[in-house]
């Protein structure tokens, strides 16, 4: 593997899953791969899990890691080509990216959707410049349209808990006070379809994801109907795609609670975290024995390690 930005970079998903379970069982068994190799983790946005789990995964593989928060201590980066740089940004991405690439063997980058331009976000303007100019493999640690390390960890978690071959997985929108990117739901929907699960997406009208991510999934506007018979409930808030970046609803009747979970096939509850309790999900559901949120977060080390292992093998 050269770069990792989506499920499409994984040639054989079943084989990738097997490798993930192998590194989970034997986390230090591949330490030689990363010897004298350095990973830079670059954050344009906040993170708890991605920062710690990706670093831990790299360390398990014997790599050295350097973490940089671009907005705290580095020069502010201009990302537009051709601008007269007389504003508050002293450095251009076009120099910064190859400079960072010259210090490391792999770059991880987190750069959320900025909601300034739907086109720029959906063309992955920042991530693609990293791929073009870094000179080393690039791993998405959540870009504008996808969060593939999260989706891979979610897939691993479902595989560990499913009781039937093709479980019913429901991706449900839930309310949130801030406008959040579509990266997590896009990436989850895309990944679940390659995994060939029975995927249903439920959300209020106006929250349709981009068609390329909805794919062949069923869209059900009635949340209670969607929950019937579900084996996994995956909650997430996102801002509107059609009214790009807008909050169209904060309707708390969409909060995942005990009554709605009772409609399911004793489903597990999933969320990528961080989660706002009693907006997205009630205390009772997230604290119940059906909640997988900590297991998902723990599997972030596993997904990152499986991806980095493949990249190191192909360096
Ligand atoms: C981010 C998001 O919704 O994309 C990161 C989730 C992993 N969440 C927040 O900004 C709260
Ligand atoms: N789930 C996830 O990516 O969490 P962080 O934003 O804390 O990294």
Can you put this structure into words, describing what you see?
The chain is of the alpha/beta class and 315 residues long. It has two domains: 7-146 and 300-313, Rossmann fold; 150-297, Rossmann fold. The chain is built from twelve helices and eleven strands. The protein has helices at 13-25, 49-60, 93-101, 118-122, 125-133, 148-161, 183-194, 211-214, 223-227, 258-261, 283-286, 293-313; strands at residues 38-43, 64-69, 77-78, 91-92, 106-110, 138-140, 168-173, 198-202, 218-219, 232-236, 268-270. The strands form three sheets. It has a five-stranded parallel beta sheet with strand order 9-8-7-10-11. Helix 10 (258-261) links the parallel strand 10 and strand 11 (268-270). The radius of gyration is 19 Å and the shape is globular. The model has no long low-confidence stretch (mean pLDDT 98). N-acetyl-L-norvaline binds at residues 142, 147, 180-181, 183-184, 272, 274. N-acetyl-L-norvaline is lined by residues 142, 147, 180-181, 183-184, 272, 274.
Offer a quick outline of the entry.
With 315 residues, this protein is of the alpha/beta class.
Q: State the share of residues found in helices, binned by percent.
A: 25-40%
**Biggest sheet statistics:** 5 strands, parallel
Mean pLDDT: 98
CATH homologous superfamily annotation of the largest domain: Aspartate/ornithine carbamoyltransferase
* CATH class category of the largest domain: Alpha Beta
- Put simply, the count of helices is 12
> What number of structural domains do the residues give?
2
